[in-house]
C-alpha cells in the first residue's frame, strides 16, 4: 500500500493498494503532484496523488524488482533495475526511451547532473551517460 499523510496534521490522505508482494524499498520521487517509485512486484509506477490513482506501470520485463529510487528530469526519469540495466522512461506515459546495460544489478540511485546521468552498478563500475 502506498500511504500519503498530511505533513502538518498527520491525517491520512491516500492509501493506494499496489498488489501482493509489491513492497516498496526505495525512496519515492515526487514531481508536480505525482509519485514515482519501483517495487518488488517488478514494476515502476507513477501515481497521481490528488486523484489517488495509478497513471502508468512499467514492468521490468524479466521479473526483477526496482529497488533504486528514481531521479527526475524535465520530461523523463531514470531508475536502476535489478535486471542489470539503467532505465530511462518518459514521465508522461512510462514509455521506455532507452536503457544502459551493466554486468550486475543497479540498486543505487542515479543522479542527473545537467545533461549527464551518473550511476553505479554492482559490478563495481561508475557510469556517466550523456
Descriptive account of the structure:
The structure is a single chain. It contains no helices and 13 strands. By secondary structure, the chain is an all-beta fold. It has a four-stranded antiparallel β-sheet, with no helix packed on it. Strand 8 (76-80) and strand 9 (85-90) form a beta hairpin. The protein is globular, with a radius of gyration of 15 Å. The termini are far apart. 29% of the residues are buried. The mean pLDDT is 92.
Strand order of the largest sheet: 3-4-5-6
Query: Between the first and last Cα atoms, what is the distance in angstroms?
Result: 36 Å
What does the average pLDDT come to?
92
Instruction: Give a count of the beta strands, DSSP E runs of length 2 or more.
Output: 13
Q: pLDDT under 50 segments (min length 5)?
A: none
Largest sheet composition: 4 strands, antiparallel
Overall radius of gyration: 15 Å
Order of helices and strands: EEEEEEEEEEEEE
Form type: globular
Please indicate the percent range of residues in DSSP E strands (runs of 2 or more).
Answer: over 45%
Number of helices: 0
- Name the structural class: mainly beta
Percent of residues in helices: under 10%
Amino acid at each position: 500500500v502506498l500511504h500519503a499523510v498530511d505533513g502538518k496534521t498527520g491525517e491520512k490522505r491516500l492509501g493506494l493498494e499496489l498488489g501482493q508482494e509489491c513492497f516498496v524499498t526505495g525512496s519515492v520521487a515526487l514531481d508536480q503532484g505525482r509519485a514515482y517509485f519501483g517495487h518488488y512486484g517488478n514494476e515502476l509506477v507513477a501515481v497521481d496523488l490528488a486523484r489517488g490513482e495509478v497513471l502508468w506501470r512499467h514492468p521490468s520485463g524479466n521479473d526483477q524488482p526496482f529497488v533504486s529510487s528514481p531521479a527526475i528530469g524535465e520530461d523523463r526519469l531514470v531508475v536502476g533495475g535489478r535486471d542489470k540495466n539503467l532505465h530511462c522512461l518518459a514521465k508522461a506515459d512510462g514509455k521506455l526511451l532507452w536503457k544502459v546495460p551493466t554486468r550486475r544489478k543497479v540498486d543505487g540511485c542515479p543522479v542527473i547532473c545537467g545533461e549527464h546521468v551518473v550511476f553505479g552498478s554492482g559490478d563495481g563500475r561508475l557510469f556517466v551517460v550523456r
